[in-house]
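To start, one record:
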Amino acid sequence: MKRRILQYLRASDDILSGEQMSARLGVSRVAVWKHIRRLQDAGYPIESTPKGYRLTGRPDMLQPWEFDGREGRMHCYGEVESTMAIARELARESCPEFTVVTAERQTKGRGRLGRVWHSQRGGLYFTIVLRPTLPSPLSSLTTFAAGRTWAVMLRDAYGIEAGLKWPNDLLVDGRKLSGMLSEMDARGEMVTFVNIGIGLNVNNDPTADEPTAVSLAQILGRKLDRRDLLEGFLERFEAKMRDPHGLDRIIAEWKPYAVTLNQAVRIVTTRESIEGIARDVDETGALLLERPDGTLQRIIHGDCFHQADAVGAG
């Protein structure tokens, strides 16, 4: 109902009376008034006049009713500690696949290796719950699919030449646009759920916290609609994940967008730091690192820094 009310208000250049809204929606004028009040309380700039209602702007908001067909799977919050923590509880309570948790701001957002993910207002912060039929060693393929989805979408829809840094960062001209973090739960050898947390710099300015980062608004010189970005990603990513063979060739599909291959890199884990040349990524998503003595070392996880990167930039 809220989505339909917003659709009518957005399509009208004039004031819509309560009577008109009631007739179009098939509900009482009192019901229309109640829904209007709830939309106003949620932050929508709806002007109430003696003649009716008018939407005076389109705020950059994420609300379940803004996502047609996904309302029951969208959990949208103003401020939380972490969307990943909420999604973890939902996944353990058997929420449906492709459940999404969003937040305007996170107070304890996490990056890799326990780093803080700064979550300023204006960015896009969300976690998506997946239930792929995969053995646990292949669970990381889902993040490769998510990264490739973003890279293709930003190129096709926004003309942004985004590249992928192993294992799951999105870069534009060497500057960090997005990061991802995944959590996996398994029963026996098979995955029960994989949660992918994504932070994308959209209308925020991340440079105060990360001087080498960048946002979409800074790249394009204008603000973007975060709802359109999220819906576009979800449509493409869900289609990929619903395809029975969607992950079969994901590494091969990911490589053309990779900016890490054949670069001198440093891999940092909780226990060590390793340097070498990133020669390839195998079918499981592991990085094949050429060491100074010419041997190849298979790296399953870690934070990757291109030779010119600073460790603090992530």
Summary: Helices lie at 2-11, 18-25, 29-41, 83-92, 141-158, 216-220, 226-242, 250-254.
